[in-house]
Amino acid sequence: MSNQDTVILDVDGTLADSAYHHTVAWTRAFDRVGLRPPAWRIQRAIGLGGDKLVAAVSGDRAEHEHGDAVRKGWEEAYADLLPEVHLLPGARELILALADRGLTVVLATSGKEEFTRHVLDLLDLPAGTLGGRASSEEAQESKPAPDVLEVALGKVGGGSALVVGDTPYDVAAAARVGSPCVTVRTGGFGVAELRTAGSVLVVDGLPDLLEADWDRLLEAEPPGGSVDPDSPLPPA
Fold it and tell me: For the range 52-55, what are the long-range contacts, defined as Cβ-Cβ under 8 Å and sequence gap of 24 or more?
């Protein structure tokens, strides 16, 4: 049985209440190039890397013709919304509680540095609380590929980790590095689909994790099967 000594935390939708801000930003970005995919479809792609989202939502032709422009538009639109992005309840408390247990806490995010810095400023953690952080800019391939999690583990010397995220993409990426994943529903995905993806525990929010049995969670095994990590979107 494994015994995780590291917890890797996703940022957007997990620590920061930003999933729907990202949906709005991507919606505006698509609109700027004359594409209008339904917002619900964009929402279900939040958590994918931006390099994969355009094709997942609107197809390969849209990626080929407009991918870079849509990503630039998303970055600009999300920057405008950034002052409205706040921490989810329990975010700071959970990190401090995990650190107090002697666990190594690492952030792993697909977000841009300026956006991650905003969340870090809101967290206002004491120096040394975090063991490190990794971004998709340091990874060769974005989620649901496991690269950013591998970078995060490498920064703290390897070991075994429990991942906390909010999407099936987090579960798939965690499974590919041999890690179990706990999910919160704050990314907008349902309990059944997160469980089907292979999440070892699904909770409504981070305050529930403050009350969780961490001795049991840290001994959890990764799922034997999860959603196809190569599938662009979980089934609607």
Answer: 52/142, 52/232, 53/26, 55/232
How many of the other CB atoms lie within 10 Å of CB of 229?
17
Cβ count near 196 (within 10 Å): 17
Picking from 9-13, 137-141, 149-153, which range would have the lowest pLDDT averaged per residue? 137-141
Q: What is the pLDDT of residues 185-215, one digit of tens each?
A: 999 999 999 999 999 999 999 999 999 999 9
Beta-bridge mates of residue 7: 105, 162
Distance in angstroms (rounded) separating the CA atoms of residues 89 and 12: 13
Packed helices 60-81 and 50-58: angle between N→C axes, nearest 10 degrees: 120
Q: Residue 181 has what DSSP assignment?
A: E
**What CA–CA distance (Å, rounded) separates 145 from 26?**
21
Tell me the three state secondary structure of residue 46: strand
Q: Which of 227, 233, 8, 218 is nearest to 106 (CA)?
A: 8
How many CB atoms are located within 10 Å of the residue 121 CB? 8
Q: Furthest-apart CA pair in the chain: how many Å?
A: 52
- pTM assigned to the model: 0.92
What does the mean pLDDT of the chain come to? 92
